[in-house]
Each structure stands twice: as C-alpha cells, then as structure tokens.
Amino acid sequence: MVSLTEADWLAIEREACKRSLVTFIKRAWPILEPGQPYAHGRHLDAIAQHLEAVTAGQINRLLINIPPGTMKSMATAVFWPAWEWGPRGMPHMRFIGASHEEGLATRDNMKMRRLVQSEWFQRLWPTPLVNDQNQKTVFENLSTGWRQSCPVGSMTGRRGDRVLWDDPHSVEDAHSPARLEGANRIFRETLPTRLNNPDSSAIIIVMQRLHTKDISGEIIDGDLGYEHLCLPMEYEAPRKATSIGFTDWRTDPGELLFPARFPRDVVERDKRIMGAYATAGQFQQRPAPATGGEFQPDLITTVDAIPAGPVQWCRGWDLGATEGAGDYTAGVKLGKLADGRFIVADARRERFATAKRDAYIKATASGDGMGRTKQSIPQDPGQAGKGQVAAFAALLAGHVVKFSPETGDKVVRARPLASQINAGNVLMLRGPWNKDFTDELRLFPNGSNDDQVDGASRAFNELLSKGGGVFA
C-alpha cells in the first residue's frame, strides 16, 4: 500500500491546478467565497479554455460577450491572473485591470491580492509581495510582477503584459453618446500604448452588450483581429468556431447558459423586468440602437382616446402554431384616421397550437366587432393555402377577411409602416401591450421575435391597398 506524504499531496495539488484553470478556480473558490457554494457551468470551461490559450500564446486579443452574473469578473480578472502567477509559474506577469468604475476595478484587485496572500496559495506557490507596493489599487511581487487597477478613463502610466477590461461601459453609459465615444476613443488611442510588447502582450475584454456602438461593436464591426467568444443566456443559432476550435455546446433553441444559477423561472422573471431591449443586449449579446433600427418607436405618440372622425380599421395577423414556444400568433389592429395619420389600437400575441390559435383569432375578431375591422391573414402557398383559406373563411363567417400570401423580404414589407412611424405620423392607444410592441419595433430586424411587426406591417399595407380597411 502506497503511503503519500504531505509533500506528495501538495505536489498532486500543484499539478492538478497547473493543468487546468477550472480546477484551480474550484480549489480557490472557498478562499474568496467561503459562504457561497461553488456552482459550475459549461460556460466557465469555455472561458477557461480561451484564457489558457492566451497563456499559451495562441491568442493575444480576446473579446468575451456574456451575461452579467456568470462569474466573468472572477474568472478573468481574479482567478486567471493568480493562476498565471502560481500554478503556471509566471509570477513576472504584469496585469492592468480596468473597468468603467474605479470601485469595480479595485474590488477585483483586492480579491486577487487576498487570494495570493492566502495560506493555501502561499503554501503551494510561495509568492511574497513587496511591502511598499501592497495596496488596494496596486501590488507587486518579488519577481517584479504586479497588478494595478484603474478606471477606463485614466488608463495611463504603467504598461502591462495583460490588459483586462471588465465592463468598459456602465448601463447608463449606453444612453450617452459622449460616454460611448469617450470609451471607444480610449480603446482606439490609449489601450494600444499600455502594452509591454505590442506583438505578444494580451488584451482581454469581457462585457455584456449594451449598444451597437459599444466597444464590442467597434471590435466586431471593424474586424479588429479579436477572438470572439459569445455566449448568450439562451441559445439561438450556431456561431463560427473560434480559432481554438470551440463551438457552443448547445443545440436546442432557448437552451440556457447557466441553469445552476439562472434556471428557467429566474430567466423569464428577469426578462419581464428588463424588457426586450435590455434582454437582447445584456442576455443575448445582440443589441439594437436605443432609438431603434428600422423603426424609431420613440416618435410614436401615445394617446388616451381614438381621435374623433371616421377611421378605416384592419387587423393584420402573423401566424404561429406551437404551444408555449417558438413563434407567436400576433394580431395588430391599425386604423387610418381622417387626417391621413394612423393609430395602433391594439397588439396582442400568444403561443398556441393550431386549434387554440384559431379559437384565439376568432375571439379577437369577435371583439373587434362583426364587419367593423378587416382581418388580414397570411395565406400559405399551394394547395395547403387553399385549404387554410377555406377553414378560416368558415371560422370567421360574417367578418370581413382578406387572405394573401407573404411576398418579399419582411424588412421590405415593414418599411412603409416604418416610414410613417419615423415621420411622426403614427399614434398608439395607451394600453398594457405598449411596451412589448414598441420593444419589438425597436429591435427589428435583429430581435428574437418579429411577429407583431409582421402583423402591423400587414395591417398597414392593407390599409394602403385599393380595398383599404373597414370604416367604423
């Protein structure tokens, strides 16, 4: 029977941590979070894999887009630098850690210092710190390695082997063109000068997306040579593999990133609170301009009553056929006013299988009033469409119904309505559905849902057609 000494166990611990950043994180976690159980997610394997590639010299420009609350700061700004100093035997490495707020950068500096000074770390990887350079914002070891924290706005002075930018923008910054441009200017003009060796020193930027013109947008749109690791909260579609061969392990649309910490009920709760715009950026890493892309929904005037005078009405439908997931069935009611403006009077959407969907459409049409609102319904091509028309005609007997196939690109179909919204010629009746509707407009065509836009575009284009809507 083999008997292992304490030295043997320490050697095993050193080797296990040397081979794997994730193993090091798991071992070090109780030191920094003694009262919080460690929860692992496969996204941490992905982050660690790419940081290990930086250590190996395979990557020297890395952009990580990932939702908040997923241990991104701890992994990249605390554990990885300590892993390089200790298990990887690189105590000479010099780190600059920056964030949009000095307090956040200092927080991570202090956490790494606490980890390095812990009895566990020093027993395995003795790394004494220099007494006169052992502060909250900067500390140095006897091998001339150091870590310094600073806000993004004052990234001057020292040059590092690794520059870590964790959340270069605050959420508030995303609504300030001046602050966005200020951070981007630092990225373009200051950041390249903060490196010890421009050809081999590494820059790691980890952030949630907040705006199309944030630093991630600068990097992606400019094709600036950064490896891009993008991990949305809910899986949407395959992405190009990174240079080290990583692809998202998920395959099912909507599959969660970190269910151990963000289970489905928590994600759905937070999505309702955040709204579609923030969800798209912070959770899904695909922001839209704050004022809108194709549509400028802030130019819609919300009213408490429909203006007096005759109105032509049409409700446009976009059809889904899945219960609880997938595309919505959406119906949007638009009116053309006597003065030439338009009003959105109602927008509703539900996820129903076919039978419930058809009953929903019938109930909505009945609520609009028999013969008082044209119902415009998309028609499937071919023989299936003929059967669908016959079924809906029977279902909506007595109502004014128009069937027509969808033709052309949905963005092209939406532009006539967008032009009127963007010109300030569209009103909206105040209702609980307003935010969901305008959020979808704001994100179009990059949002995860466009069913209400499709329905509204159909209604609008029908109102402009020769037959128009129904006067009421």
Secondary structure blueprint with pairings:
Layout: H1 6-19, H2 21-32, H3 42-55, E1 61-65, H4 72-85, E2 94-99, H5 102-116, H6 119-124, E3 129-134, E4 138-141, E5 146-151, E6 162-166, H7 177-190, E7 202-207, H8 215-222, E8 227-230, H9 264-283, E9 301-303, E10 312-318, E11 329-336, E12 342-350, H10 354-368, E13 374-378, H11 382-395, E14 401-404, H12 410-422, E15 426-429, H13 434-443, H14 451-464, E16 470-471
Helix pairs in contact: 1-2, 2-4, 3-4, 4-5, 9-13, 12-14
Task: Provide an overview of this structure.
The protein has 472 residues and is an alpha/beta fold. The protein has 14 helices and 16 strands. The protein has helices spanning 6-19, 21-32, 42-55, 72-85, 102-116, 119-124, 177-190, 215-222, 264-283, 354-368, 382-395, 410-422, 434-443, 451-464, and strands at 61-65, 94-99, 129-134, 138-141, 146-151, 162-166, 202-207, 227-230, 301-303, 312-318, 329-336, 342-350, 374-378, 401-404, 426-429, 470-471. An eight-stranded mixed β-sheet has the order 3-4-5-2-6-7-1-8, with helices on both faces. A hairpin with a 5-residue loop joins strand 11 and strand 12 (342-350). It starts with 5 loop residues before the first helix and ends with a strand. 40% of the residues are buried.
Instruction: Determine the mean pLDDT.
Output: 92
Low-confidence stretches: none
Q: Radius of gyration over alpha carbons?
A: 28 Å
Spatial strand arrangement across the major sheet = 3-4-5-2-6-7-1-8
Major β-sheet annotation: 8 strands, mixed
